[in-house]
């Protein structure tokens, strides 16, 4: 006999017990066939078969489950009315994987759709590679593309893996290599666009208005490299920054070279206006790169 689960899965009036696979201490979920049959064709069919009476009182049939207590509590939580059990929250991409496998096994289509949406809503922003791996595993092309694109906005840190190992186990080395190649191609496209825009700004009237290096003469005799040098170095730094993180949403405006207060006051409004145009051009260039899939 297992330990009784916490409310609401401890109802003494329950007509079925689902026993978790945890050994040597399983958990018994006392639930109602009617609720599970509504949510799952799997359970609806299973309940037509005779179940052994193996609990201590001998009056409630028991189903030995392959899922652990955490998975059962979550999947059952989706089946119960929100008035008696809050909607379960998936806390890690690995939770999504485990719960989706159970929902798939139990033929819970509505819960499968919810879990897929939760994967994107909860984890795409910060864990796109884990989302990518899970989406690849289940063939969710739209989510795969979303995750690959979001990956462009995050740095790759040597001491911090881009995804949990259990998620990466879902994809082959070749698949992960293609993702890295997609990122590299987007970085090269972004860098080339920055260089193109730098040349436009240096040779003609740019789409953002007056060239930042035009109509300004620095009156400071020393300690200022001038607007022209600042601009050239800033563009070079920006090109390398987009090569590293092609999906970045802003450009570093830190001074790449010494600049006086007067030059900075003149230059910054133009740079900020230029930044908005530059980001738009880069996104357009990246979108032209062949999508991952």
Please characterize this protein's 3D structure.
The chain folds into three domains: 1-88, Potassium Channel Kv1.1, Chain A (2-Layer Sandwich); 89-171; 185-287, no CATH class. With 293 residues, it is mainly alpha-helical. Helix 4 packs antiparallel against helix 5. The mean pLDDT is 85. The chain is built from eleven helices and four strands; from the N terminus they run βββααβααααααααα.
In terms of topology, how is this protein built?
Blueprint: E1 3-4, E2 16-19, E3 27-31, H1 33-39, H2 41-46, E4 62-64, H3 69-79, H4 93-105, H5 109-123, H6 128-138, H7 141-151, H8 165-168, H9 173-203, H10 226-244, H11 261-287
Parallel strand pairs: 1-3, 2-4
Antiparallel strand pairs: 2-3
Helix pairs in contact: 3-4, 4-5, 6-7, 9-10, 9-11
Relative helix content: 40-55%
Order of helices and strands: EEEHHEHHHHHHHHH
Strand content: under 5%
Widest sheet: strand ordering = 1-3-2-4
Q: What overall form do the CA principal axes indicate?
A: elongated
Mean pLDDT comes to: 85
The tally of domains stands at 3
Oligomer: single chain
Intertermini distance: 49 Å
Count of DSSP helices?
A: 11
Please report the total strand number as a whole number.
4
Question: Unreliable stretches, pLDDT < 50, 5 or more residues?
Answer: none
Helix-strand makeup class: mainly alpha
Q: Output the radius of gyration.
A: 29 Å
């Amino acid at each position: 006999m297992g330990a009784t689960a916490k409310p609401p899965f401890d109802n003494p009036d329950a007509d079925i017990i689902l026993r978790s696979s945890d050994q040597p201490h399983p958990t018994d979920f006392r639930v109602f066939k009617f609720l599970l049959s509504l949510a799952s064709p799997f359970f609806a069919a299973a309940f037509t078969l005779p179940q052994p009476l193996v609990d201590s009182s001998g009056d409630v049939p028991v189903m030995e489950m392959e899922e652990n207590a955490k998975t059962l509590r979550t999947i059952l939580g989706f089946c119960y009315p929100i008035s008696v059990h809050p909607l379960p929250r998936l806390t890690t991409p690995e939770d999504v994987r485990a719960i989706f496998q159970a929902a798939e096994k139990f033929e819970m289509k509505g819960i499968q759709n919810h879990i897929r949406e939760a994967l994107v809503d909860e984890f795409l922003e910060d864990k796109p590679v884990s989302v990518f791996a899970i989406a690849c595993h289940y063939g969710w092309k739209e989510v795969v593309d979303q995750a690959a694109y979001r990956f462009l906005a995050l740095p790759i840190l040597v001491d911090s893996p881009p995804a949990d190992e259990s998620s990466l186990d879902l994809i082959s080395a070749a698949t992960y290599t293609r993702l890295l190649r997609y990122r590299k191609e987007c970085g090269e496209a972004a860098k080339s666009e920055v260089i193109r825009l730098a040349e436009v700004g240096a040779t003609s009237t740019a789409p953002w208005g007056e060239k930042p290096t035009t109509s300004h003469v620095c009156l400071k005799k020393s300690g200022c490299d001038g607007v022209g040098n600042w601009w050239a170095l800033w563009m070079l730094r920006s090109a390398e920054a987009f090569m590293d993180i092609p999906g970045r949403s802003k450009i570093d405006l830190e001074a790449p070279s010494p600049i006086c207060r007067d030059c900075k006051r003149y230059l910054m409004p133009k740079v900020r206006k230029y930044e908005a145009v530059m980001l738009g051009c880069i996104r357009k260039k990246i979108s032209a790169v062949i999508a991952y899939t």
